[in-house]
């Protein structure tokens, strides 16, 4: 009986230690951080990119998303990505839900340092989430140092856009980077290489979209790209 009593006591001590957590502690389950009002700002400020799902326990869509969300978090964590996935119980954390104007579930926002949160409106599979986050965590436009890099990028993508800027510190080049960051459907590149300019008969400030015949099935993506570019830099 004495041994059993000691075992009960030991179990009780372990339970207290495991359960005695501060309100602001970050609970990580399958690489997904559970955020509260007390720790939300510190997590956002201490990470370059945080992907946050505002959910409701009784929401069927949220329940269906949960395993894919956890899978995406696992894929990114095991790949060594610095992107963090997190979730907030919007029914409990009403102040956070109100602050970020959450009026439906799930609401998913991307937080990046120094920028306004961006709403995620794309696919809900783990691969969809990982692909989008990988693009958002990479430079908006791929640096093309020479003709070979440009050719490889064009050949390996159904749709690929290149911005030709001799000086990438200009306002026009900076605008191109901002536009590239808004386009999620395909990759964009930027070059200052003179030989690449010549190969494509490009002038400084030109933006050229390269599309394979197969990409015509996704003509709406190309049209969207052109519209975004025109709106950002009207003629």
Automatic annotation (TrEMBL):
Listed A to Z, the keywords are:
Disulfide bond, Redox-active center, Signal
Q: Where is the signal peptide, in residue numbers? A: 1-18
- Please give the Gene Ontology molecular function terms for this protein: protein disulfide isomerase activity
| UniProt domain Thioredoxin: residue ranges | 1-138
Q: Which domain of life is it from?
A: Eukaryota
Q: Which GO terms describe its biological process?
A: protein folding; response to endoplasmic reticulum stress
- List the GO terms this entry assigns under cellular component, sorted alphabetically: endoplasmic reticulum
Q: Which residues cross the membrane?
A: none
- Pfam families (UniProt xref): Thioredoxin
Note the InterPro entries from the entry: Thioredoxin-like_sf (IPR036249), Thioredoxin_domain (IPR013766)
Q: Which PROSITE patterns match?
A: THIOREDOXIN_2 (PS51352)
- Presence of the UniProt keyword Transport in the record: no
Presence of the UniProt keyword NAD in the record:
no
- Which family is this sequence assigned to? Belongs to the protein disulfide isomerase family.
Q: What is this protein called?
A: Thioredoxin domain-containing protein
Species of provenance? Photinus pyralis
